[in-house]
Write a structure and sequence with these properties.
The chain is of the alpha+beta class. The protein contains three helices and three strands; from the N terminus they run βααββα. 41% of the residues lie in helices and 15% in strands. The chain has a three-stranded antiparallel sheet with strand order 1-3-2. It is globular, with a radius of gyration of 12 Å.
Length: 73
């Protein structure tokens, strides 16, 4: 699998929470949804639960990415 960096601009101005399916579509990872689901289960992708719905928290993900790059934020 080819790994590409996802620019934060891709998600800027969008909704804060996304379903796994919508996130996969925006990131161009539709074929890797099972992998993304594992990442959600393992806590690699930050999520927030709303009732029975578990959504990916885009703001928390971007903060993690910035922190891992050493970018203040």
């Amino acid at each position: 699998m080819k790994v590409e960096e996802l620019p934060s601009e891709l998600f800027a101005g969008g909704p804060r929470y996304l379903t796994l399916e919508r996130f996969a579509g925006l990131a161009g990872l539709q074929e890797q949804e099972p992998m993304l689901a594992r990442w959600v289960e393992e806590g690699i992708l930050p999520t927030r639960r709303f009732g029975r719905h578990q959504l990916i928290d885009i703001q928390a993900l971007l903060q993690r990415l910035d922190h891992s790059k050493g970018t203040p934020g």
